[in-house]
Write a sequence for this structure.
């Protein structure tokens, strides 16, 4: 077992991310006028979709790929669940159908990238367009509906703790931690670090990469289910910002675009930073349109930090 | 070298295929269309298609150049929207403001392109992620500039330049597109700059050793891409008569689809603007057909995705190069 201290020494970005997150959450808590259990529960519930999507995006980034279709997958599941459930009330059936569609989308990405070795950026950009089109075809205008008990799930309390807060911790711990400790987790980081070396070491490179995209599809789909719980309806235009936000969150949390480095715990913190920053801006009365600008600028900044850090010693050598 | 795990397959004579396929596809699609819908034979209808094509064609100039060096520009749609918004606001229906609106549009486009080029070359951020970030910033900027409520309108001069048809056929925007297209085709096929663009697209390292400043070229081409998108946004205002949010969103994938349909390799170094012209016409015709069928938005998205996937798939079998490194 890796002790928490060793983990933090190996992944300093994770510690930084949680410190920044704590500061933003405190700032938000102070500036919100009425902070009750309901406000907290609601706010945390709104974070579940982006946290799920970011976990998926981060897994693909670690494999040295990128998944631009997670936002569209989330949208598709949202639309399937909302449209299918509307009138029939068979929520769980449509949740399963939605998640199956998400897994299929991930599998398609995985096969195209891992087996046919097409550029992941182009593949997922294209499948994103297709999935978004299918979602629009299913639900041309926002609508659909879910039973009220379904939309009340995020408000449930488990003892004194909101269910959504538990899920926020449980999803990464129960769904990701065992995978990370499994041979797959080791293979994922190995492939992300050096594909050729991993291949030589007997790791099944193609299966590992394909699995990363399937997992991304699954987590994006899970995000879509939680989003439908929050919204209670479907909207084909809802998922667009999730793609960039998930990549930005992962990068801010220390996951490297160049693959093989970073932790899901960091990605979760990164996603929460981006999301709570919007809450903070809103609480401070800043125009909500700034969210777009803040997201883009934060991503560029986070991407340039490791580069600047690496540059400093290099400069010194040159001048010496 | 992971690519050595799989040896390149067939397609040993791809250059000829590349040049011919787009025009054959265009001809087949057009013939198919007039069989189903004879209305598409009318000069009036062709003129309408060309009018729409001229805007996409101008955006596709920048996209072609960027894709030729193995890049991609996802921010073009957001730039079109942004310059559409500021053009409407600056013009406020008056021709006097045309020079200012044009300068502002080109300037905004150039600024975004410069930022893209700088982020990609200096911060070593992958093209797709960098332009995705600037895209998000520009969408936000569009909302901020207008406060979410677009105002202003095109001026009569701009409207007649884009929609007024000389001899029932030729619009000012079409002439402008043809002039720009001729310039791009000449530059790509005859100039040193053109050689360098293909060289960088084919082999970045070798071009660097041959003395080509890859960062400078990258920044230049992204700036051009920003400016052509800015110009298209300016002209779009004349086409729609006013500005609206998300007006340019479709140009993002449409321009990529047009370039890829035109036979350019998404891995750079292969393709030409001559091909892109066919790609633009195919895309516009496809959009029009889907609108007639009644699934404009959903159909377009699915079509773009499938087309980009298929073309990447087909053209990747022949020349496979490492993109990351």
């Amino acid at each position: 077992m890796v002790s928490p201290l060793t983990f933090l020494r190996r992944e300093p970005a994770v510690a930084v991310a949680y410190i920044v997150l704590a500061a933003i959450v405190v700032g938000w808590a102070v500036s919100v006028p009425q902070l009750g259990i309901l406000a907290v529960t609601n706010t945390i519930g709104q974070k579940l979709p982006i946290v799920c999507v970011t976990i998926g995006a981060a897994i693909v980034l670690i494999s040295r790929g990128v998944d631009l279709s997670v936002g569209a997958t989330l949208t598709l599941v949202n639309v399937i669940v909302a449209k299918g459930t509307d009138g029939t009330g068979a929520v769980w059936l449509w949740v399963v159908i939605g998640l199956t569609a998400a897994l299929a989308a991930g599998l398609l990405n995985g096969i195209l990238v891992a087996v046919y070795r097409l550029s992941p950026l182009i593949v997922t950009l294209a499948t994103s367009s297709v999935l978004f089109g299918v979602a629009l075809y299913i639900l041309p205008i926002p609508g659909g509906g879910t039973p009220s008990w379904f939309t009340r799930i995020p408000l449930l309390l488990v003892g004194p703790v909101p269910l959504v807060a538990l899920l926020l911790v449980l999803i990464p711990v129960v769904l990701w931690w065992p995978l990370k400790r499994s041979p797959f987790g080791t293979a994922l980081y190995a492939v992300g670090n050096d594909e050729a070396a991993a291949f030589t070491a007997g790791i099944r490179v193609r299966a590992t990469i394909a699995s990363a995209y399937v997992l991304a599809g699954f987590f994006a789909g899970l995000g879509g289910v939680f989003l439908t719980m929050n919204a209670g309806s479907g909207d084909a235009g809802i998922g667009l910002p999730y793609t960039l936000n998930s990549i930005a969150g992962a990068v801010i949390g220390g996951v490297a675009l160049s693959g093989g480095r970073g932790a899901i715990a960091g990605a979760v913190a990164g996603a929460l930073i981006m999301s709570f920053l919007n809450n903070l801006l809103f609480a401070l009365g800043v125009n909500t349109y700034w969210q777009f600008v803040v997201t883009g600028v934060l991503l560029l900044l986070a991407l340039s930090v490791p580069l600047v850090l690496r540059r400093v010693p290099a400069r010194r050598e040159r001048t010496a | 070298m992971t690519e050595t795990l799989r040896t390149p397959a067939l397609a040993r004579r791809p250059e000829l295929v590349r040049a011919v396929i787009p025009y054959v596809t265009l001809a087949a699609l057009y013939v198919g269309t007039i069989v189903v819908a004879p209305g598409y034979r009318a000069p009036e209808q062709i003129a309408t298609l060309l009018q729409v094509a001229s805007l996409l064609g101008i955006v596709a100039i920048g996209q072609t150049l960027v894709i030729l060096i193995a890049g991609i520009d996802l921010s073009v749609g957001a730039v079109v929207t942004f310059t559409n918004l500021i053009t409407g606001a600056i013009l406020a229906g008056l021709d006097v403001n045309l020079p200012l609106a044009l300068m502002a549009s080109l300037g905004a486009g150039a600024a975004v392109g410069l930022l893209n080029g700088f982020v990609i070359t200096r911060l070593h951020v992958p093209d797709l992620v960098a332009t995705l970030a600037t895209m998000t910033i520009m969408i936000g900027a569009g909302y901020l500039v207008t406060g979410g409520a677009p105002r202003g309108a095109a001026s009569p001069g701009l409207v007649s330049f884009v929609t007024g048809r000389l001899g029932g056929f030729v619009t000012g925007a079409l002439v402008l597109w043809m002039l720009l297209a001729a310039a791009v085709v000449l530059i790509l096929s005859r100039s040193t700059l053109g050689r360098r663009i293909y060289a960088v697209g084919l082999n970045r390292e070798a071009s660097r050793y041959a003395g080509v400043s890859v960062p400078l070229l990258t920044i230049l081409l992204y700036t051009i891409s920003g400016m052509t998108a800015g110009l298209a946004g300016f002209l779009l205002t004349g086409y729609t008569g006013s500005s609206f949010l998300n007006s340019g969103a479709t140009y993002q994938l449409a321009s990529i689809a047009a370039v890829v349909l035109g036979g350019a390799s998404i891995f750079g170094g292969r393709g030409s603007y001559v091909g892109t012209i066919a790609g633009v016409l195919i895309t516009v015709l496809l959009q029009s057909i889907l609108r007639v069928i009644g699934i404009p938005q959903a159909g377009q998205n699915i079509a773009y995705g499938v087309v980009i996937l298929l073309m990447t798939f087909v053209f990747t079998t022949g020349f496979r190069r490492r993109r990351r490194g």
